[in-house]
Amino acid sequence: NAANSGVGRCIIQLAREMGVKTVNFVRRPDELRDELTALGADLVVGEDDGDVVKNTLARLDGKRPVLASNAVRLMDMLAPGGSMVTYGAMSRKSIKVPNGFLIFKGIKLEGLWVTQWLKNAPVSEIEAAYDKLASLMAAGRLKQAVDTVYPLSDVRKAVEKAQEEFRSGK
């Protein structure tokens, strides 16, 4: 979900590089579909399109995703034994997971905190990850949208802009 966020856009592009197909949930699908498809999104779906799980599964020809990020309700869609990775906690609300997902579907829950990973991962692993990302960026295959660039002297304006909703990038 939140496929148009900075993280979502990176996930789309990295998945494309790895040959992994994506289902991408956004609030404004008609506005964002072409842009996300150009990044490599395979399917762009509105988060509020009726019974989003049922409607999306119908479009997947019976294939269920094996990985979801950051949305408990997407676990309905996951294949048995799939994983849900959560990387943000902006709402500061606890994740509530129905027991059936764990018992009957064997869904695995994972958390990702990049800061902690950087503290604990071997330097060689971090260097390899950054080398891969840098090479993709240098080749123009991993892009991040930039809304506005500010000189350091305009830091106040930059912070105000960063707080706005519906920006066109970072």
Provide structural commentary:
With 170 residues, this protein is of the alpha/beta class. It has 7 helices and 5 strands. Strands 3-4-5 form a 3-stranded parallel β-sheet, with no helix packed on it. Strands 1-2 form a two-stranded parallel sheet. Strand 4 (83-86), helix 4 (99-103) and strand 5 (108-111) form a beta-alpha-beta unit. The model has no long low-confidence stretch (mean pLDDT 90).
Oligomeric state of the chains present here: single chain
Unreliable spans: none
Helix content: 40-55%
Number of strands: 5
- Describe the main β-sheet briefly: 3 strands, parallel
Shape: globular
Strand order of the largest sheet: 3-4-5
H/E order of the elements?
HEHEHEEHEHHH
Tell me what portion of residues adopts beta-strand conformation.
5-15%
Mean pLDDT: 90
Query: Span between N and C termini?
Result: 18 Å
Structural class: alpha/beta
Q: How does the SSE layout of this entry go?
A:
Elements: H1 6-18, E1 23-26, H2 29-39, E2 43-46, H3 52-59, E3 67-69, E4 83-86, H4 99-103, E5 108-111, H5 114-120, H6 123-138, H7 155-163
Parallel strand pairs: 1-2, 3-4, 4-5
Considering the chains and any ligands shown, give keywords for the structure.
170 residues; alpha/beta; 3-stranded parallel β-sheet; two-stranded parallel ribbon; 7 helices; 5 strands; 41% helix; globular
Summarize the structure.
Helices cover 41% and strands 11% of the residues. With 170 residues, the chain is α/β, with parallel strands linked by helices.
